[in-house]
Amino acid sequence: MVTLGIDPGLSLTGYAAIRADSLGLGAVEVIEAGVFRLDKKQSISRRLAELERDLTALIERTRPGCICVESLFAHFGHPRTAIIMAHARGVILLTAAKFRLPLVEVPPATVKKAITGNGRATKAQMQYAVATVLGLASLPKPVDVADAIAVALCGSRRFVGVGGSKKR
After folding, report:
1. CA 165, CA 49: separation in Å to the nearest integer?
2. Which residues contact 55 (CB under 8 A, 6 or more apart)?
3. What is the average per-residue pLDDT within 132-136?
4. Residues tagged active-site
């Protein structure tokens, strides 16, 4: 099954389409990974429309069985970041619904813990862990790509079966 992991943002949105067996065990293949670069000079509404177009094209290209996205995280020192992220997440959730794709939301600390063993891992630690888990020759760059791969890995382990049933 193909799982699409998304690391939402309004400047860079990381994405990764991976293929894993139906149990999320064994070898994982990265089908496509990268970032959507959204023009900071554009209004938020234009960037959101661009994100929707890019995500739609990605879904049509990769045909995922589910979409995984980080759940909203708010840090008391950076409340504006949560608001901005919520805009991008809204587009991602709407696009998943438009394609009738199951959605798996995973808290950032859960993703970090699952991939590195540390729920407070740094971006660099995430890059290194993702490269190690997948046996990559180099670190996934930018960090948004590593985060999207990690979200896809973690989400694919939570989503099991041909019928799209979630693990209980």
Report:
1. 31
2. 6, 13, 15, 36, 91, 92, 95
3. 90
4. 7, 70, 144
Kindly report the pTM of this predicted structure.
0.89
Look at residue 168 in the predicted model and tell me its pLDDT: 30
Residues in contact with 138: Cβ distance below 8 Å, sequence separation at least 6, in sequence order: 131
Cα 16 from Cα 12, distance rounded (Å): 13
CATH fold for the domain made of 2-166: Nucleotidyltransferase; domain 5 (3.30.420)
How far apart are the C-alpha atoms of 136 and 47, rounded to whole Å?
Answer: 31
In 3D, which of 52, 66, 56, 58 has the Cα closest to residue 24?
66
Q: Is 53 within 8 Å of 90 (Cβ atoms)?
A: no
Query: How many CB atoms within 10 Å of residue 113?
Result: 15
The owner of tokens 């996205």 is 69
The tens digit of pLDDT for each residue in 59-94 reads 999 999 999 998 876 666 767 777 878 899 999 999
